[in-house]
Amino acid sequence: MEDTDFVPPSHEEVRTDVRALFLGAIRMTLEMLLEEEIRGLVGAGRWQQVAGRKDQRNGSYLRGLLTSMGHLEVAVPRTRASGSAEAVLGRYKRRSEELDEAITSAYVQGVSTRKMGRVTRALMGEEVSRSTVSRVTKSLEEKVEGLRTQPLTQAFPYVYLDATFLDARWARTVQNVSALVAYGVGEDGHRHLLAVTLGGSESMDSWLDLLRQLLERGLRGVRLVIADGHVGLAAAARQALPDAQLQRCTVHLTRNVLAKAPWRLRGRLGKETSAIFEAPSLQDARKRLEALQAGLGRQVPEAMECLREGFAAATCFFSFPKAHWKRLRSTNGLERLHGEVKRRIRSVGAFPDRASALRLITAVALEVTGIWDDRRYLDMALLTSNRAGRTPAWRRDGGCSRAP
User: Fold this and answer.
1) Strands 173-185 and 191-199
2) Count of CB atoms within 10 A of residue 284's CB?
3) Could you tell me which residues come within 8 angstroms of residue 105 by beta carbon, excluding any fewer than 6 positions away?
4) What does pLDDT average to in each consecutive run of 10 residues of the chain (404 residues)?
5) Against a cut of 0.85, is the pTM above it?
6) What is the 8-class DSSP label of residue 71?
C-alpha cells in the first residue's frame, strides 16, 4: 500500500476551524451563565422538585448574537411568570459590547456607515446595516454631553478660539455649518479641550453663545484670547471677556497680507512679514515694520495697509512671558486639530443632521486631544511673575494696550 502525501490544511481552513471552536466555547459559556440566571428566577435547577419553587420553566428560544468571533445562536431559557433570562445578554441585545465599541471606534477613525458592513463581514462573517451603525454610534452623545457640562475648576489664562466648516443636513437641505472649537491652557500648564459647538454660521451670536456657556461652567482668569481676525469673534470676546486681550493669529494676518501682493513678491514679503513677529521685542518689531514699509512695502501699498491695521492686535503676545511667545502668536494648535477632524470626516460627506455631526466631531476632538495630558504645554509659573501680563486691557481699535 503506497503512502499518500500529507497535505497540510490551508490558513483559511485553520482560521475557520479555530473560529468555530471559539464560537462553540462562547456559546457554551453564555448558555451556562443563562442557566444559572434562570435557576435563580425559578428557585430550582432543571428537573428538581423543590418546595420553595418560585416559578416554572417554559422552554427556551434561540437568539442570534453577533460577536467579534462571528455570529452564533444562543438558547435562552424562559419562565412562565418572569419571562426570559436578561441579565447576561440584556433585553433585545443582538451584538456584544465589544463589537459595539469596535464599531464606534472604527466610525470615529473615519470608516463610513456605508463601508462598516464590509468591515464587519470581513472580520466577523456578518454585515451590519447603516441604521445599526447609526444607532450604535449614538453612544457618543455621552461624550458630547460630558464635554458640554464639565465644570471648569481652574483658571485658564490663555484661550484659543477657531472654527472649521462642514456639510450637514439642516431643515431638509444640506448646508455648510460651522464647528466652533475652544481650548485653553490652564494654570497647570496643560492644554484642555473646553468646548465644541455647531452654529449656522461663524457669527458674533454663535461665538457669544459659546463663551457664555464657558462662563457658566466656571471659565475665569482669561488674560489672552488667541484667534483669527474674524470680526464677529472679536466682538463676542470683547463682550464676554472684557478684561482679556485679543491676540490676532499672525499666520492668518500674514496670509491676508500676502493675498494683497503679486505672486512674484509673495515669497520675499512673507519672510519679511514673519520676521516682524519673530522680533526679540515689540520695539524691534516696530522697527522691522518701518523698514519693510520703507523698502519692499512701497511696491505693495495695499498689503502694507493690511499689515499696519492688524499690527497692534497681532503683537499682544509681546506683553507676556517670552518663553510663551511662540505658542501665543498663532492658532496653529487648533489648525492641526481641525485638519485631523477634516481627515476623519472626509468619508462621511454630508451628515444626515447636525446632532450626528456634533457627535463625531466631539469624539474625534476628544481622541486627538487625549495626548495633551502627557506633557506640559507651557510653564505658567512665568506668567504669575510677569508684571506686564497682569493688567491687560482692550483698546478701542481692537488691539492691545502698550506694555508698560
Assistant:
1) antiparallel
2) 14
3) none
4) 59 55 64 72 70 72 63 73 64 53 58 58 56 62 84 95 81 77 94 89 89 95 93 93 95 94 94 95 95 94 95 95 94 87 73 77 83 89 65 42 38
5) no
6) E
